[in-house]
Amino acid sequence: MIITGGKLDLSFAGSFFGTGKPLIKIIAVDAGLEAVKALGLEPDMIVGDFDTVKPEVLAYYRRMEHIVWDTHQPEKDETDTELALLKAQATGCTEVVVLGATGGRMDHMLGNIHLLFPCLQKGMEAYILDSQNRIYLIDKERTFNRREIWGKYISFLPLTEEVRGITLTGFKYPLHEKDIEIGTSLCISNELVGEKVRRLFRFLQDILIVGLLVYLVPPALEFYRFYFTRYSTVFKVPLGFVYLGFFVFQIITIVRYCGDLAGCYKEFRKGGKAV
User: Exposed, middle or buried by CB within 10 Å (0-12, 13-18, 19+), for 81?
Assistant: First the structure.
């Protein structure tokens, strides 16, 4: 987790930390340290040139001996946020969430989005989060789950000059092998819809199977009852034992599809996903 110095909705950040998500390390970046203090957190590392953070906040955390400090001069080639991402990569981090990377200066916000690209190249999943957005880069096929999307809409914007062959299925506005160029708003404000239809079909299919199997239980019992009165001429045991495995299989199948129905119902309540 990296908390940098842009505008940060503390109520959102507090709710995010209150979800119980496991965090290995917290890196505070310059003025982001003020948000860290407001949230009552103790960072593992503090990075920056400290030209924007309040001196009293710096003094508060300098008393904590376990914190690692990475101090830089104000005149440098990298932003403090880039230095924090480099530190996260150096520690072997495979996933990082960045808070406070939006809502301030536009050049910093755009620069922070561009910083996601080297993370993608190095195989580190990096996300920029705020109360309205979840920003990340993709370079291959991906499945999107409705529960993981920030809000109702999902947008796709090319970071490079052109992205070729985009196919969107399960979306309100689908695409098939569409090339999009930088400077278009074609893929703004899309919505996931397709998975709900597929789940409805599976739900109805499971109901039909369960209903048919349950309907066949009484005649199956009569069948087994009849053959339990007939004996094998070779082994001298009721023939019902020969067919008992089919009845057990029937009951197991009913239980399995009932469990599938329960799972479908839960997914309906939570939402769906699309590819």
Answer: buried
Longest CA span, the chain:
97
d(CA 69, CA 55): 15
Give residues with Cβ within 8 angstroms of 22, minimum separation 6.
Answer: none
Contact 35, 2 (CB under 8 A): no
40-55 average pLDDT score: 90
| Phi/psi of residue 163, nearest 5 degrees | -120, 125
Between the CA atoms of 16, 44, 54 and 8, what dihedral angle is there, to the nearest 10 degrees?
A: -20
**What's this model's pTM, rounded to 2 decimal places?**
0.66
Q: Is the pLDDT of residue 24 over 60?
A: yes
Q: Considering only 41-50, 107-116, 175-184, 189-198, which range has the smallest mean pLDDT?
A: 189-198
Q: How far is CA 76 from the centre of its chain?
A: 35
Report residue 23's pLDDT band, with 50, 70 and 90 as the boundaries.
Answer: low
CB distance 173 to 193 below 8 Å = no
Q: What number does CATH give the domain 2-137?
A: 3.40.50.10240
Q: Among candidates 202, 209, 207, 208, which has minimal Cα distance to 267?
A: 202
DSSP code of residue 158: -
Section 234-251 average pLDDT: 75
Is the CB of residue 6 less than 8 Å from the CB of residue 102? yes
Q: Which stretches does DSSP call E strand in 42-187? A: 45-48, 68-71, 95-99, 125-129, 134-135, 144-145, 162-168, 175-181
Amino acid in position 17: F
